[in-house]
Request: fold
Amino acid sequence: MDFNDSPEETEYRATARTWLEKNAAEHKAMNHADDMAAGKAWQKRKAEAGYAQITWPKEWGGAGGTPIQSVIFGQEEAKFPVQYGYFTIGLGMCVPTVMAFANDETKQRFVGPALRGEEIWSQLFSEPAGGSDVAAIRTRAVRDGDDWVVNGQKVWTSGAHYSDYGIVLVRTNPDVPKHKGLTMFWLDLKSPGVEIRPIHQMSGGSNFNEVYFTDVRIPDAQRLGAVDDGWKVALVTLMNERLAVGGASGASPKEILALAKDLDAADGPLIQDSAFRQRLADWYVQSEGLRNTRMRTMTALSRGQTPGPESSIGKIIAANVLQDLGNAAIEAEDQYGIINDPALLPLKGLFQGAVMNAPGLRIAGGTDEILKNIIAERVLGLPGEIRTDKDAAFKDLAVGR
Amino acid sequence: MNFDYSDDQKMLKDEARKFLAAKCDAKVVRGVLDNADRAYDEALWKGVAEQGWLGVAIPEEFGGLGMGHVELCGLAEELGRACAPIPFASTVYFVAEALMKFGSQEQKAKWLPKIAAGEVIGAFATAEGKGPVTARSIGTSVSGGKLSGEKIPVTDGDVADLIVVLAKDGLYLVEKGEGVSAEVLTTLDPTRSAAKLTFSGAPAERLGNEDGIAAMQAVFDRAAVLLAFEQIGGADKSLEMAKEYALSRHAFGRAIAGYQAIKHKLADIYVKNEVARSNAYFGAWALNTDAGDLPLAAATARVAASEAFWFASKENIQTHGGIGFTWEADPQLYYRRSRQLSLVAGAPATWRERLVSQLEMKNAA
Ligand SMILES: Cc1cc2nc3c(=O)[nH]c(=O)nc-3n(C[C@H](O)[C@H](O)[C@H](O)COP(=O)(O)OP(=O)(O)OC[C@H]3O[C@@H](n4cnc5c(N)ncnc54)[C@H](O)[C@@H]3O)c2cc1C
Reply:
């Protein structure tokens, strides 16, 4: 075990740090359009310097680097106000799926622009009937010559309103069991018949959407994988999802420590309150545990092993710690804690933001319950859930609500 | 950066697991549990000494194998998994570590080879009653080289040949014999013995020059990392037992392992165990390199491992249902051990407090 950088890692970190100092421009609070422009500009700059997808092979615009290098860059980048969420789903999940299943021409056309932040991708899987039960989707695609005609509705699609392309999972055969009648496509979200309606979230933002399909024509050439074999393709996306959405940034024990020094509790600063200190210790243990677990995953990757489903623990911990930590902070503010105006709050309302965003983090990319099932079944080898839907034709199933 | 055991370290650990599977099954543990007059398993102690484990982190010049602390952590994990009923922790994590940290050349040369050879059992005597050990709670003192006072409880105090005693002004080495009397205590985990030690003018030799509490804490920091690995070993074994039982026990027409309440319980244990393991790895590195981060890393490892083992051992009993509450079922062995290991170097609450003060110091700098 060695938590120090090796000589090569030290050098890599120094180079990255120098590059960041020179290139990471100040991020000013601004409107969405400006923020998006700044995000895209930053992504382009990183791509040109080989920092956009460090572990991708050079032929696809990566740096052919190691997982540890990508961790190092991430650690250094986090020290600058230049983290944008626009590209996570595309580069973390959609484009890898395209790279695995599309023909060369499609890959040549799309990988580079996505990497340089010129085009943004969405993942269109979830539907009102199929969230946790991903394969229960009802959006229907019917073959018509060289095209497929798609009708139905997706929901909770993050970023669809500012995305250019998406990967979409649809039902092509309702007469067979549900996992066997799905097909995956990539599509242009500006295609005729695609209607995107942002959903107002409890956090106040509108980052996810309903997406309606009315007679949308998708050429068969945009198919990823075989007809009716889309589940296999979806699993590749979902596996990448677990790696991509591992963490939750935002409030950390360090930040709440700083807050607790400033806040007055009944008998002096909150940081002197022993009950508070005990809880703070537990959050720190969780956050550090998560950080070090990621490092273990990276070590496995860099030794050529595949990290197992144990990386599922990451999101369970991160989302729950964020929720509890944020809540402890606002409770510590006492009556003042009900305010949710960044201008009046410590750290621009970071903790209030954590409380209001954590519920989504515990759901997106697999709920706590689903992740625990995954751990129980795939890590511990316990029996699967009782299933009544395995052999029945999809059209005969009770789905949705 | 590298966050795992090396191949050699894994091999050592695997060998240790095999050795313990053969020499330390539940029967061996129960041989101590069921016999109030047995403090530890003598055959296992001898076997472990022959394997060289007692001296794994002791330098070769003092009769050890000179391998390092990561190797010792690996062994600790296996000893915890086997619930080994031997005075390993007292002798190695506390006394040998105290000697290596604070001992003079002569003290090291005199004691470490004997420890490595299994000729000497150690004990670390700090508490003098209820509550955390603080400067105020210590009555034991030394005058003219003679130590007087009462220590309760002292793990392995009844069988120790060499006792490191915390007195008002610092740590002292005391040998069993003149001026030392032991009264065996009944404890929550009879597989690890403890005693009340009374010192009445026992000849004592100063160990290091540090202030008492600071020196004790330095020893605790080192032991905490090693204990964390024992705790993780025990927690993993508890999870394994729960899993095996849940797969074999059928109720309402199927294995209880298929019920989500049980599946999620086991997943929760797994998550806590992995959090503890990741934190312990960081602790192992800090211990091995004696990094400035050791106090924070040790506290983090200890809090995580105490929580993990407690949770795993209690939910293992729950998963077993009624049989889990019987004397003949094995979950109790780990439940008892989880209490012993969580308290022996100070309670989790004390460590949480230490963790936060370390964090404050780090963030003030
Ligand atoms: C912020 C956010 C962003 C998202 N972004 C996207 C996106 O970009 N693209 C996309 O396709 N989807 C996206 N989603 C959708 C997300 O994947 C689903 O919301 C999630 O998988 C849960 O599905 P659901 O909402 O239908 O809840 P349901 O599946 O209806 O779950 C309801 C409750 O039932 C529980 N439950 C369900 N099945 C089981 C079971 N077998 N055992 C025990 N409990 C169970 C769940 O844990 C939950 O508590 C996003 C969601 C959020 C919140």
